[in-house]
Amino acid sequence: MRRLAGLIAISLAACGSDPSASTVDTADGHTVDVVDIAPPLDTVAPGPDVTVVAPVAPVDAPFPVLLTADTPLTATVTVALAGTEREVRLYRGRGSFVARADAAGALPLTLNGAPLTPLTAEARPTRELSGALSGDELSWSAAADILVTGDVSVAAGDTLTIGAGTRVLVADAVNVEVSGAVKSLGTGAEPVLLTASGDAWGGLRLLPGAVGELDETWLVAGGGDDAKRFGHSDSQPVVWVDAARLTMRGGGILDGPGKAFGSRDADITLGGVRVARCDTGGELENTMLVAERLHVSEIPDGDGVADDDDNDGVYLRGARIVAGEAAESVLRDCVFAVGEDDGIDHNEALVRVERAWIEGFRHEGVAASNGRRITIVDSVVKGCEQGIEAGYGAPEVVVERCIVTGNGVGVRFGDSYDWGDDGTLSVTASVVYGNVADVRNFSRALDGPKPEAVTVSCSVVGDPTWVDVSGNVAGPPEGRWTDGCATGPALSADSCPGLSVGPTCAD
Known about the structure:
Immunoglobulin-like
């Protein structure tokens, strides 16, 4: 993903009709503002360059089908697979669904009525495993489907190796528990698949001291062990990392009743991973996360009905302490699209967000609370109830060179909870325009604005309170605004020395 300049394709029309505000009482007795945001509309008609791929499918078990466009379009396409037609939504060029094959053989495939190379389903010999693994049980290959009928474990000092193209079918609520190491050696041509032999298997659990390396590995229909529930949304993580280390390159986690990731006191590195239709994208506690090109969508589904179950794109709680210092988590070139709570929920974490696209969340695009700092730069936040919020406690929220548009509230200091708000919100060199309310400073404790809690400078704004203050100018911004390529107007060099203001179009 290039700098924001080369990526943004915002359209005010794409935000749907103007959001309308209302007030409701939540189950916990708090009164909050609710803004009804229409789901995002297509930004561009889909072109022919959308590829559809899948692993060699098992028979009668869920497998992933991945759609990838050659441009970051948001669009709905029609896919027919083996006679079953469905609409699939691509967000910023990525989409997916999960299917089942009734029998071995070719699976005819069309995209928007045009035939594509068929997918393949294949029956293989089976190898049944359960219990503590040892010897050759620690080596899994594509020669036979691995049937995990009961919990399996990998002892400290041992390594489970999963070869390219391997398929692992796991029984309901059954887990793969690793105290040693696991290496999954999938490739783009031959990914590894862990899926359910029934309704929903448990998860891959990295226990204290374990190391996991997952290359091009898909985990489908996991999170079904109620005894392993964790976190706010009270569901099992499909991948659990407990005082352990995980590196995941490619692949992803799709269509499970559990949350995709859960962790405590962990180190997690994700590159090019997709997450879709899980209870939560991830709930990470005291964890150092480095995520690049992470794509999270439709959390927990794409039906647009809020279940009020903490269905966040990612929830980062606390920070990993390394050598006595809080380690900063980084989310870079990531997409968070459509969810029923927050895109990024920050709770006393230390986080930097770079070149993110955050769209279509029922509550906040970015919600910060409790303490420490979150910095959001070169990013787009749109189509949410509130774009970026500095909420309860004392978070430090820093926003630089971002576009925040089409939300109920663009940027906000304060919270719907009455737990105190002593943080700060700083916005610089950004476009905060086209929201129902662009800037809101409201402390429930004061029943009004909190002095010096919010600063907006060198930005394009629509709120007249902030125009001609600290180098701000009135919107709309210059440039091809309907295409989302905004340029900053001529700003005073004295007020804004050395700043490149606003995202700009690529050449």
